[in-house]
């Protein structure tokens, strides 16, 4: 069992390896040059670029391997679970996990200071792309793209810490370190433990073995993100206990959380054109998240759609139970997930022409099953992970 006092102390801990890199780059004015080089550093098996400052090269080498204790068989099982239910995972991430993140006042304030309150597409697209890279067939191996994604994420978090702590708008003694390791643990539990529970609230069947393996991938990823491994529960049962003791007790109302949620709901209302379906997204959110959280974040009520959502989850559960025996039930389930993920692909970039990049192996498996929300498989040999330019954050930290 994780010592809760240890996790509480992480409120004041950043990421020493990444923080040292950002301190060096900002002091020497080399942030822009490093951004240009790392923009092309996307695959696990790419050699570390030569034309980087020594501090960056040292960091990339030190953080370039998964922990020695990683069990690749469990990673493979989690991949198979994601092949079957990835679109449903994406739906819960979109409709519930992001809202639960906004229910945490401190991280919401960090988002407000870095991205602004009206850019939900940025956070959603980054999170979705991260999960897609994490759930690829060989995510940690030579065929994946997760390692550079993790390394860049750590640098972005370090940049946020650097800029916010020097902005005069953050009191470290009172609020802890921005993007602290405690908040990282909280986000990991929201994206793993709470996503599985959210799927079950929607009537989607997830076995305990599948839930354990899905959490395990997040635990490995958390260790690579710099979270002290002793703060990462070893079992799903312990993770649930920590989620109750740490994350759910941190929930509460905040002006930033309310505004972030409102903009997120507005983004997803675009999935359903016209007025007929107004309120359906809010109803889905209220079906998945805790009622107090929905009230704190002022998620609108819609009695008709909330009743429909409750009925829909019962229907979905019945379809799940019939899935092995009914091709029609399977098709309906997959089509529902395709609509959600396909819709998010279209709206995440707020009208831009770019889309999420689904790893080639996932795209091929989904396409073979008649389900691929982002189009046909890529050309053979195309292993790009995210070729689009990244927009600059509002507060100006490096993008990497």
Automatic annotation (TrEMBL):
Keywords: Oxidoreductase. Pfam families: MPAB_Lcp_cat (PF09995). Its EC number is 1.-.-.-. Residues 369-400 are annotated as: Disordered. Residues 381-391 have a biased composition (Basic and acidic residues). The keyword Oxidoreductase applies. Residues 117-316 form the ER-bound oxygenase mpaB/mpaB'/Rubber oxygenase catalytic domain. The keyword Oxidoreductase applies. GO terms for molecular function: oxidoreductase activity. It comes from the Bacteria. It is an enzyme of class 1 (oxidoreductase). InterPro entries: Lcp-like (IPR037473), MPAB/Lcp_cat_dom (IPR018713). This is Oxygenase MpaB family protein.
């Amino acid at each position: 069992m994780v010592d809760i006092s240890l996790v509480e102390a992480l409120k004041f801990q950043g990421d020493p390896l990444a923080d040292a890199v950002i301190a060096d780059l900002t002091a020497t004015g080399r942030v822009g040059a490093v951004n240009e080089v790392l923009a092309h550093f996307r695959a696990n098996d790419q050699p570390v670029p030569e034309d980087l400052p020594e501090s960056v090269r040292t960091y990339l080498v030190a953080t370039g391997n998964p922990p020695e204790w990683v069990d690749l068989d469990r990673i493979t099982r989690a991949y198979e679970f994601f092949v079957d239910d990835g679109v449903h995972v994406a739906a819960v991430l979109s409709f519930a996990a992001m809202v639960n993140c906004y229910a945490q006042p401190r991280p919401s304030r960090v988002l407000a200071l870095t991205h602004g309150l009206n850019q939900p597409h940025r956070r959603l697209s980054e999170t979705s792309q991260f999960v897609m890279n994490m759930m690829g067939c060989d995510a940690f191996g030579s065929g994946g793209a997760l390692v550079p994604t993790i390394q860049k994420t750590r640098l972005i978090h370090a940049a946020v810490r650097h800029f916010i702590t020097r902005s005069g708008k953050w009191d470290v003694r009172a609020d802890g370190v921005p993007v602290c390791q405690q908040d990282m643990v909280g986000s990991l539990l929201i994206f793993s433990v709470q996503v599985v529970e959210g799927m079950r609230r929607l009537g989607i069947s997830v076995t305990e073995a599948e839930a354990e393996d899905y959490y395990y991938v997040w635990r490995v990823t958390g260790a690579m993100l710099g979270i002290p491994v002793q703060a990462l529960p070893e079992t799903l049962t312990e993770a649930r206990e920590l989620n109750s003791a740490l994350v759910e007790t941190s929930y509460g109302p905040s002006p930033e959380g309310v505004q972030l949620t409102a903009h997120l709901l507005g983004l997803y209302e675009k999935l359903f054109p016209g007025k007929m379906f107004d309120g359906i997204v809010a109803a889905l959110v209220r079906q998945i998240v805790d009622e107090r959280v929905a009230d704190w974040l002022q998620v609108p009520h819609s009695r008709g759609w909330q009743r429909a959502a409750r009925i829909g989850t019962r229907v979905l559960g019945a379809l799940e139970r019939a899935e092995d025996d009914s091709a029609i039930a399977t098709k309906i389930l997959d089509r529902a997930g395709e609509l959600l993920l396909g819709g998010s692909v279209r709206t995440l970039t707020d009208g831009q022409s770019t889309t999420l990049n689904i790893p080639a192996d996932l795209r091929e498996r989904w396409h073979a099953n008649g389900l691929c929300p982002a189009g046909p498989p890529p050309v053979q040999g195309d292993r790009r992970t995210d070729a689009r330019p990244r927009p600059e954050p509002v507060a100006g930290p490096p993008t990497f």
